[in-house]
Amino acid sequence: MSTPDPTLSQVTHPAQGATAAKSYQPYVDAKWGLKNHWYPALFSHELEEGAFGSTKICGESILLRRENDQLYALEDRCCHRGVKLSKKPYCFKEGMVTCWYHGYTYGLNDGELKTILAAPDDPLIGNASIKTYPIVEKYSIIWVFVGDADHSPIPPLESDLPPQESKDYAHYSPNLTDDDAIVLGIRRKGESNWRLAVENGFDPGHVLIHWKSPLVYAHDMAVPLGFKPTSDEAVKAFEDADGPKGMMNMYPPDADGHSNYEPIFENTMLGVQAYGGTPALGIRTSMWLPGVLKVENFPFPGITAHEMYVPIDDKSYEYWELLVKTAPTEAEREEFTDRYENYLRDAVFHDFNDDDLWARDSMQPFYENDVGFAEEKLCAMDAVIVAWRKLVARHARGIQTPPMELGTKRRR
Amino acid sequence: MTNPQVLIQFADDTTRRIEVAPYQTLLQAALDAGLQLFHQCKTGSCGSCVCTVESGVVRMRSDTSVALLPREIEQRKVLTCLAQPENDAHIRMDYGFNELQRYRPQRFRAWVEDIHRLNDSVVELTLEVDEAERDAQFLPGMYYLLRVPNTDIWRPYSMCSTVEHLPSMRFLIRLLDDGAMSTYLESECAIDAELEIDGPHGAFKLQQPPQGPVVLIAGGTGLAPVLSILDTLSEMRWRAHPIYLHFGVNRLADLFYLDELAARLEWLPNLNLRVTLVEPHTDWQGALGYATDGVPDGALGPDTEVFLCGPPPMVDAAVSSLEARGISPAQIHFESFIPAQEGI
């Protein structure tokens, strides 16, 4: 709506506050994640018919249920004494879940207290409820919308996922949302704040940690030491009102051959050179709110690596790693699955991504109390990280506050 | 037959009288009358709505168990959520009426967390309140009284921070020649110094999410309450309508917080900012004039809410100009700085 007033920056008058104002302060406040967004909860295959599951997202414990081909997501906390229903959920009647402790029984649909096993006439019945969450199953994943109970309307899942690229694009790489895509992957816990994981995901300067990765050696990949932005078009922001919000590192040269990034192959002072002879064509990274990475044409052309970093609490995140390929026929699906299970899963997720995992964990102590956001010394290659922070500060649908059981402790 | 009248007496001897219709519980009648008595479950299980019957006959519905001990029942305790008076009655609550007010003013201690000079005439003072003792709630726009240490002089200052920053509270204080607080801030005040504060006070406040465009007009340190309102809207991710913030000072040297304002332009897509000086200066290419100038027609409609804070001439001028443009007095909230009076 408005652009920063140029007159503000022309004034060199020092009258600044004691704490330097951050152009992305709401991002610094978002320790517990962004609310009113869609997050992955479980892979589809992890919740069978008739099963219960559980997860924790942005500090909220969530009970999941698949019953008669319907999916349900409810607050995983009995309103009676606060225990987790998922510890031992009972189902005595279709459409309901009963707490293992004193038998408080809730409707799966609306979370309302329908009866109490041993107190069927209690006046509390009908007068208490637990929260329910919008839930959808798409792209081999079960997703829940974590946010305010009265948030309306619920945006489509696709507004929180990378958009599809035009199929005419020279380096087209499949998207999670493609009709004929096969999606394979794992999830595991990372011990850092979710923001550090996101920032590491598309950091143009972090390729050094993958320097000696077996994947790079095995395929003689040309991996530079880093990338330096050389134009103000190095980062493209996506801010359409109804579309996904994100930003992209424009690594591949433009159609007219103009480059926005300069790969760094050598540091003469240190006498270090990059190696590898096979250029990686069409690699491009983009990050989308609330924290979905797309790496096009990685590890090989025609494959997309997606990563998602789902806040569990303020100190850990669920790390989702996916490989996506277009596979319209059963034979192609089988072939890719075989290659994934016998090679790519270990080579990409473990050998390669393990290095990212410990790099993020290593940043945690510095940022744990937000000190890092004030004391870090970013350089030119980090411009994209600042761009991401501003994008989140401006477009997040909400900033999650700490869970109520932590008391009145404020988020700063 | 008339409905029973119940006199409710609070621990601080405040009384309220309510009428209870047939089949209504005492609690429901009180809530319907706008009296937010403490309660939780409304079903007799939690016991939090208990009161003592001083006179009259008050029955409790007998179809459920109640969270009262036999000796409590002997002491004429009843749960208001189950209670139905048969005739006029007098009941007593064991808490004060003032405890029902979420924003009742309280007096407590605070410590200087930071003190920072913004320019020749403005100090940014950050206090840390003793949150272990108190719940220092406030609505954005409200103010606290700060006591000048070792005196009986209290001065009102609006917070520029929001409740999200608690236990920190930040104030923007204009320095006055020979002012009691100014003298203290310029001479003695240091980090960790103790101050007494009293609040929250004030009718200038944002009570609920606005239903239309928001116009914020601030002169000088009148920016403080306006910034608290702006940041509260930001914390709510309020994006439903545009926000117009007009900040004006007299001279270039009076400016402050441009960095804070510029940052908010980054994270608030619906913010329109206008900063004005009255006196021209060669280093200023921005707008000249008054903070009240240049409010666009599009900002002013029947659902617009206006918040004005600054010196009385600014506020008066803004109120008359806005009313001339069709804004009703009910849409305008304002607070004028009053020059300090001794011994408030």
Q: What are the secondary-structure elements of chain B, in order, as H or E?
A: EEHEEHEEEEEEEEHEEHEHEEEHE
Overall pLDDT confidence of chain B:
90
Measured distance between first and last alpha carbons of chain B: 52 Å
| Average pLDDT over all residues of chain A | 90
Low-confidence stretches of chain B: none
Total of helices of chain A: 7
Q: Shape of chain B from CA axes?
A: elongated
Strand order of the main beta sheet of chain A, please?
Answer: 10-20-19-18-17-13-12
Per-chain topology:
The complex is a heterodimer of chains A (412) and B (344).
Chain A: H1 6-10, H2 25-29, E1 37-43, E2 52-57, E3 60-67, E4 70-75, E5 96-98, E6 104-107, E7 113-116, E8 135-138, E9 141-146, E10 181-190, H3 194-202, H4 214-218, E11 226-229, E12 235-238, E13 246-249, E14 261-264, E15 266-267, E16 272-273, E17 284-288, E18 292-296, E19 303-311, E20 317-326, H5 330-367, H6 371-375, H7 383-395
Antiparallel strand pairs in A: 1-9, 2-3, 3-4, 5-6, 6-7, 8-9, 10-20, 11-14, 12-13, 13-17, 15-16, 17-18, 18-19, 19-20
Chain B: E1 5-9, E2 15-19, H1 26-32, E3 50-55, E4 58-60, H2 70-74, E5 77-79, E6 83-85, E7 89-92, E8 106-117, E9 122-129, E10 143-147, E11 154-158, E12 168-174, H3 180-187, E13 194-201, E14 214-219, H4 223-235, E15 243-249, H5 258-267, E16 271-277, E17 287-288, E18 305-310, H6 312-324, E19 332-336
Parallel strand pairs in B: 1-7, 14-15, 14-18, 15-16, 16-17, 18-19
Antiparallel strand pairs in B: 1-2, 3-5, 3-7, 4-6, 8-9, 8-13, 9-12, 10-11, 10-13
